[in-house]
Fold this sequence. Notes:
By secondary structure, this protein is of the alpha/beta class.
Amino acid sequence: xxxxxxxxxxxxxxxxxxxxxxxxxxxxxxxxxxxxxxxxxxxxxxxxxxxxxxxxxxxxxxxxxxxxxxxxxxxxxxxxxxxxxxxxxxxxxxxxxxxxxxxxxxxxxxxxxxxxxxxxxxxxxxxxxxxxxxxxxxxxxxxxxxxxxxxxxxxxxxxxxxxxxxxxxxxxxxxxxxxxxxxxxxxxxxxxxxxxxxxxxxxxxxxxxxxxxxxxxxxxxxxxxxxxxxxxxxxxxxxxxxxxxxxxxxxxxxxxxxxxxxxxxxxxxxxxxxxxxxxxxxxxxxxxxxxxxxxxxxxxxxxxxxxxxxxxxxxxxxxxxxxxxxxxxxxxxxxxxxx
Length: 339
Ligand code: WQD
């Protein structure tokens, strides 16, 4: 099977490329490198022994995409490319709509023109918005409250419309919860540019001494210990979930959406405790005011993925914190180490 992976040098995309190659797939990557390094292609090759085709470019470059689709006969597209900062999306909405929505519209148009009808999309639990019930099921109302979430919801709407218009299409939206961890080999991992927004990369930067302390946003939520609770999922489990999604699009028609989460949550303090216990590294922290826009606690109802994709998480919290540390401790400057 030959697949196009957009955003394939990004955190989740690169881990998916590794498992896809190891499953025997022929992988072509297109990535703008705005938020990732070309050195990820070397890292992928060092793990699998297979260097994926790589094209540098952005989704809304219709000329580039037509050229790629003319050079390769794809069986499916797995679409990770997109901006993902909630805070930035609020400051620069049109940057997010142009890239995340407009770019995907161009990609889907080029797919249509080249008769590629199988589409796997990296969506997000953010589209659910404020929880009307917890855990979130796929039937929870779609009510995003930030531009990033709106952009993901809009793409899901485009997918439903395309599948309605062209019955040969098969499209699945995978609604991620909180991806963390890294490939256990230590040479592939999360490498956000600048100061990390997300908990785990911030925590590992503190552990490696690149940042002085972790600020924990709020310790008076109505949770087990007052800190925020989220459904963390190992990035390798997430990557394997995409392989199952490819099987689904190859054997079904129409649109579907599936949560990819563990089905339970951990608090910030539980993450810190596990990290320190497993890795023998102290993580200095202090409590800060709540972060605007944060929800107290949510996690996935993961039953659809088990029923529809025959997939569920297999890696533990200890695996997540161990693999995150293996990557960060070996590469304190991420891919910049190799420059
Ligand atoms: C997790 C917990 C924070 C940083 C975001 C996006 C979501 C998805 C995943 C793309 C919360 C706490 C965090 C820190 C902290 N991304 N925290 N100190 O906000 O659940 O989800 O990333 O799809 O769309 O919204 O993830 O890692 O930022 O926060 O205390 O320095 O850690 O308050 O409880 P979040 P996060």
